[in-house]
Amino acid sequence: MHAPADQRFPVKVELNGRQREAPAEPRMQLCDFLRHELGATGVHVGCEHGVCGACTVLVDGVASRSCLMLAVQAHDRRVDTVESLARDDIMNDLQQAFSRHHALQCGFCTAGILMSCVEFLERMPNPDETQVRDMLSGHLCRCTGYTGMVQAVLEVSRQRQENTVENDNHV
């Protein structure tokens, strides 16, 4: 027995550190749920086929295409969007590096790219250029090219490594 298409179910997520709940139709994409039901407008919808990467968010810490996931699949899970990166309206180190290296122009793809970079740097804190380019190959940007993005990610990686060494030396 299938639920009627117009039936809505409560979907509860931890969005950017806050518990949130809203109704969703069974076939509603996570990206539409985040944007239209929860107001997370930093999630951009591009191709709706998982190819462009503009809709990338973190689901339980893993970079995920929100256009390929249903809202109901995110029930009781942690979802982080680009809105989670800045604190008190101050951009985080990755966002600042993207700005310094002119790694964004129109900004449409930037949110998804940033979220992939966040997860990538968690998994691989000291990548080389080839590894960064490989990670970025899952995203389409028609404005910037990718050189500034690569430079920004490598800079943040170096800075974080230096900060880790400094913190270890002060213990």
TrEMBL record:
What domain of life does the UniProt record list for this protein's source? Bacteria
Q: Which Pfam families match?
A: Fer2 (PF00111), Fer2_2 (PF01799)
Would the keyword Transmembrane helix be found if you checked this record's keyword annotation?
no
Q: Name one GO molecular function term.
A: 2 iron, 2 sulfur cluster binding
Kindly state which keywords UniProt assigns to this record, in alphabetical order. 2Fe-2S, Iron, Iron-sulfur, Metal-binding, Oxidoreductase
Coiled coil regions, renumbered to chain: none
Q: InterPro entries recorded for this chain?
A: 2Fe-2S-bd, 2Fe-2S-bd_dom_sf, 2Fe-2S_ferredoxin-like_sf, 2Fe-2S_ferredoxin-type, 2Fe2S_fd_BS, Beta-grasp_dom_sf, Diverse_Oxidoreductases
Q: Does the keyword Metal-binding apply?
A: yes
Q: Give every 2Fe-2S ferredoxin-type domain span.
A: 9-85
Which CDD domains has this protein been placed in?
fer2
Q: What is this protein called?
A: (2Fe-2S)-binding protein
Q: Which organism is it from?
A: Stutzerimonas stutzeri (Pseudomonas stutzeri)
